Amino acid sequence: MPEATLSKERVVDGIVRLRRLTSELGDEERAELDPVITLLEDAAGQTLSQSEVARLLGVSHTTIGRWIKKGEIPVVPTPRGRNEISLGQAVRLLQSVEELTETPREEALARVIHDRRDRANRLDVRTLLPARLLKNARGHRKAELRSLAYHCAVAQRLNKQVISDAKRRLLRWERAGRVHPTWAGEWHRVLAMPEARIARVLCSDSERSRALRQSSPFAGVLSEQERRRLINGLEDL
Fold it and tell me: Taking a C-beta distance cutoff of 8 angstroms, is the pair 191, 163 a contact?
């Protein structure tokens, strides 16, 4: 079938199906399929319109707009001046909604968002970072600790899928010139480490780790609700 006949929704659906498949495969099989997922991600583009996401999820455009207005689904501005939903966000939403196979789509989306809120409420920046660091959470240091808390939360849920996503994201950034070659090389070395060592790098307050986190390929691992929870937790100290 000619590529031109594929709608963006069908491309995104293919990404979701392949991600589901790779989660059940070993490292070698996953490595073989990762370039295919990357190709589909490039074809889908960085963002999807609210209407495209609504069709993918099987809900109304009004429903998507309502959740966006409530701040439950984040949007990003595009060069065309429109607020759209990132590809990664759309894929994660679709995966979560499709797992609720016996639930109507509108209800499933509401449940996914409710579950995200519950998970966010269980995040506490005081359990993620040592008290000695939190005592100095002000000015530029607060921004560093916000990033550190985020990555410590990511470290707690590291798995092969999360790491694979980070590797593909890093490759896309390299092709687009969005990351300095020096730091891209550093991240490639980190992502080749065992999970436990990656987690240590993510949670380190060393100068090297602070610099690495400024170009982190783990963006988007936490939900919008979790990200806001961490920000508010530091502001409330």
Answer: yes
